[in-house]
Design a protein that fits this description.
- This protein has 219 residues and is an all-alpha fold.
- Helices cover 75% and strands 0% of the residues.
- It has nine helices and no strands.
- The longest helix is centred in the N-terminal third of the chain and has 33 residues.
- The radius of gyration is 21 Å and the shape is elongated.
- The protein starts with a helix and ends in a 14-residue tail after the last helix.
């Protein structure tokens, strides 16, 4: 009987937790749409609550503040980006690189404001947003390294070379979403060729990390 009572008291709590998780996820989904093309400063908590159709107190309950809400939205968006970019392990090297870059560009294309925030570091010097940005960079470097070299633990030379390429991708992508004078496919092809150049430079300086065949001049 005691065991049964414990189970009975646990069930509502479990259901309540599930509802809370679902409600929080719903608010993040709403926020992702709101902040997709609207900057952090342009929306007040009253604006957010009104457009989301919820009481402002509910947002405070789950996220404590506007900044907390925004960070949760960015983290959720980035998680999708990194997960998709890291998928496709069954693909050939070139196809996997193309998929990684295309998914990255798709995210920026459909989430202008959030992408700018991640890359530029948010409002002022926001250490938490910088940490999210650095995490994205490292995840992309690791994904490219695993596809190119078959492992994520690479030398300092290889890591910095790939990181430099990722930073150039950020700059090119920021320019692209502002100007939109290239198709996503054209920009993606250009970035793939730039990656080949970075890998050849890495191979020249650190022969332990030879450029994959598709990136070689003679490949």
């Amino acid at each position: 009987m005691k065991i049964s009572q414990e189970r009975d008291t646990d069930r509502p709590r479990a259901r309540g937790t599930e509802r809370s998780v679902a409600r929080r996820a719903e608010l993040i989904s709403i926020g992702r749409k709101l902040f997709a093309d609207i900057s952090y400063d342009a929306l007040s908590m009253d604006d957010i609550a009104r457009q989301a159709g919820v009481a402002k107190g509910l947002i405070y309950y789950y996220f404590q503040s506007k900044r907390g809400y925004y960070l949760a939205i960015i983290q959720d968006s980035v998680a999708d980006l990194v997960t998709y970019a890291a998928s496709g392990v069954e693909l050939e090297q070139v196809d996997r690189v193309h998929r990684t870059i295309d998914s990255y560009l798709r995210y920026a294309e459909h989430n202008h404001a959030a992408y700018r925030t991640i890359v530029s570091g948010g409002v002022g010097f926001d250490t938490e947003v910088h940490a999210i940005r650095d995490g994205v960079r490292e995840a992309i470097v690791r994904t490219i390294a695993e596809g190119a070299y078959g492992r994520g633990d690479i030398s300092a030379t290889a890591r910095v070379g790939l990181l430099a390429w990722v930073c150039s991708v950020e700059g090119a992508t920021l320019d692209w979403i502002d100007r939109a004078d290239l198709s996503r496919e054209t920009l993606g092809d250009l970035l793939v060729k730039m990656l080949g150049g970075a890998m050849r430079a890495i191979a020249e300086m650190d022969p332990a990390f030879p450029a994959p065949a598709p990136a070689r001049r003679d490949g």
